[in-house]
Write a structure and sequence with these properties.
The protein is α+β, with helices and mostly antiparallel strands. It is about 25% helix and about 50% strand. The chain has one domain. The chain has a four-stranded antiparallel β-sheet with strand order 1-2-3-4, covered by helices on one side. The chain is globular, with a radius of gyration of 12 Å.
Length: about 70
């Protein structure tokens, strides 16, 4: 089993909601998860060929979901 590389976690706000953004690489793919800080549930998961693409997709999905 391949271990995650370049694990990064940061706290920020999206649409005024505090979230935790986690990104990492497994093999040649990059992953990004966004979780609501309270209660801590992951509500966005993305996978892409580059870290930037995974982050952009995740943030766009989070903005959509939090705008409802």
């Amino acid at each position: 089993m391949t271990k995650p590389e370049n694990l990064r976690t940061e706290e920020t706000q999206i649409n005024g909601v505090p979230v935790t953004v986690t990104s990492y690489k497994v093999g040649s793919r990059f992953y990004c998860h966004i979780a609501n800080k309270d209660p801590g549930a992951v509500f966005v998961r993305t996978e892409a060929a580059s870290k930037q693409e995974a982050m952009e997709q995740a943030i766009a999905k989070a903005k959509q979901r939090l705008a409802r």
